[in-house]
Each structure stands twice: as structure tokens, then as C-alpha cells.
Amino acid sequence: MRVLVVNAGSSSLKLSVLDGALSILASDELELPDGRVEPDAVAGVLARLPAADAAGHRVVHGGPWYSGPARVDADVVARIGELRTLAPLHQDRALAGIAAVRAARPDLPAVACFDTAFHAGLPAAAAAYALPADWVQRHGLRRYGFHGLSHAHVARRAGELVGRSGLRVVSCHLGAGASLAAIHDGRSLDTTMGFTPLEVS
Question: Has 115 been annotated as catalytic?
């Protein structure tokens, strides 16, 4: 099975086709200097890349709803849109990437993979803010954490490299954004990012 991976970041849109062994068959990148995803440019890249059987879209914020991947449908698109105010640089670009790929390849099944999902099971002490309980309840205030896809990959890869499971890892994601995560046996225990991608503690 070949998967088109669509990574809508804060400064670029990366498109790659991976085979069943997760090897990159081909990739391309569109710079987003003004933050806009151009459907024609995406269609042009897809025309040059090998055909894929499904698409996986990186989405930064999954809010309280997603602790794992979700098949993209109207409800998932609406939920992603509801989180615009929490990740304005990212959610719109993810939605634009989803729409552009759908326009160019309408029959391609799509899955949204959320950066926050890796941190959805944070222990209560790490997820909670020292705020009044009614604020937390009313506004859904908690530490969501970000860069989860990257941190999860680093934890898996570290285990493969040393040939052990149950590792305690401090993972560092360094890019256009940066965060740390404390991971034990593949599970996020704490992270430096909080309610939105702008909050770093």
C-alpha cells in the first residue's frame, strides 16, 4: 500500500509518498510564504508523485475529541475548523491541504493524524493547569501538547536503535516550532507545550 503523507506546517506544505515499509518513494515541498495553500500547486505536485492508495494528513490540534487517527469526513473537517482559534497558523493550512488533495484526487481515502493525540493520555498532574475548576470545565482548559507525531516517532526509533523496549526518553522537536516531551515506554508523560502551539512552559 502506498500512502500520500501531507504535512501542512507553519511555513511549508510537504507531500511524500511512502510504501508499505514506510520508505519514501518520492517527495516534494511547497513553500507557503503568505500562508496560503494553492490548490493548483498541490495538483501539480500530485501529478509528479507516484499514485497513492490513501492520504494521511498531519493536523496540529485535535482538541478533546481525537486520541488517534480519524477518517476524514464532514464531521472531522468541522471539528478541525472549530479549533482555528487555538492554532490559527495550522488548522486553516491543514484544512486547505485536505481540500486541495480532495479536489485533485476525490476518490483517495483520507485520514487525519493529530499532533495532540500522542499527548491525549497525559497523567492528570501533567495535563492540569492551576486554574479554577469551573474555568477548566467551561473552556476545556488542559495541556494538549503538540509535535506528537514527531515525539512518537523519536520514541519508537530510539527503541529500535538500542534494541530495547520500555525506554525513558526525553524527545526534542526542533523546527519552525520547538518542544520537549518526557516519554516512558512509548507513552507521553509530560511536554513543554500546553493549550495552544504558542504556549511553551
Answer: yes
